[in-house]
Design a protein that fits this description.
This protein has about 200 residues and is of the alpha+beta class. It is about 25% helix and about 35% strand. The chain has helices at about 15-25, 55-60, 105-115, 145-165, 175-180, and strands at about 30-35, 45-55, 65-75, 80-90, 95-100, 120-130, 135-145. Strands 1-2-6-7 form a 4-stranded mixed sheet. β6 and β7 form a beta hairpin. α3 packs antiparallel against α4 (about 145-165). The longest helix is centred in the C-terminal third of the chain and has 19 residues, at about 145-165.
Length: about 200
């Protein structure tokens, strides 16, 4: 996946990802944490959050808004599940929430989480689901401070350690996700607000 973005196109997303997200976004907002690098670059991939939702939902995130995120690790008997959940608070009435899960056994999941542990900024790219495809709307970049980078490195280390303790024949991301998803919650509450 290319790290190239422009004011009119956003990230160059693979066709399959575009179609899958567009179909799912018809039901509820969707997100994916993806690793992308500039074409021909030898640098490690950067993490990007791709957000897909209905047109009205995407508009609620445009302009000044607070993005609250939470990185979660679920340890199951089938392996780890890492989840990045976020809520975008435009005002008290409009909240756009979504989450993405990462399978660190896959290179793409490990690379995206590794990128989150290295980079100082985290780009969010917003796409509206229209006619079975995604149309780029806008991007926002939020700080990824030292504390957040350390958290991502720690979560990745714990997930790798947990995965190494699971026998290969027992590993199943699908089963791990089924167990972990029982504990998933949205929206991510704003700091200092009881949820």
């Amino acid at each position: 996946m290319s790290d190239r973005t422009s004011a009119s196109t956003g990230l160059e997303l693979p066709e399959r990802l575009r179609r899958t997200l567009a179909a799912a976004a018809a039901e509820a907002p969707q997100a994916r944490l993806v690793g992308a690098r500039a074409r021909g670059s030898m640098r490690p991939p950067r993490a990007h959050v791709v957000v897909a939702a209905g047109e009205g939902q995407i508009e609620s995130a445009r302009g000044p808004a607070r993005i609250v995120r939470r990185l979660e690790l679920y340890r199951t008997s089938f392996g780890p599940v890492v989840r990045l959940a976020f809520s975008i608070y435009h005002d008290a009435a409009e909240v756009l929430s979504a989450a993405t899960v990462l399978d660190i056994l896959r290179v793409s999941g490990d690379a995206a989480l590794s990128g989150l542990g290295r980079q100082r900024e985290l780009p969010f790219h917003f796409y509206a689901a229209r006619g079975g495809d995604l149309e780029y709307e806008f991007s926002k970049v939020i700080p990824n401070d030292d504390e957040r980078r350390a958290e991502a490195k720690k979560v990745l280390g714990m997930a790798r350690e947990h995965l190494s303790a699971i026998p290969e024949e027992r590993r199943s991301f699908r089963r791990a996700l089924a167990l972990a998803s029982r504990n998933f919650e949205l929206p991510v509450p704003e700091p200092g607000v009881e949820g």
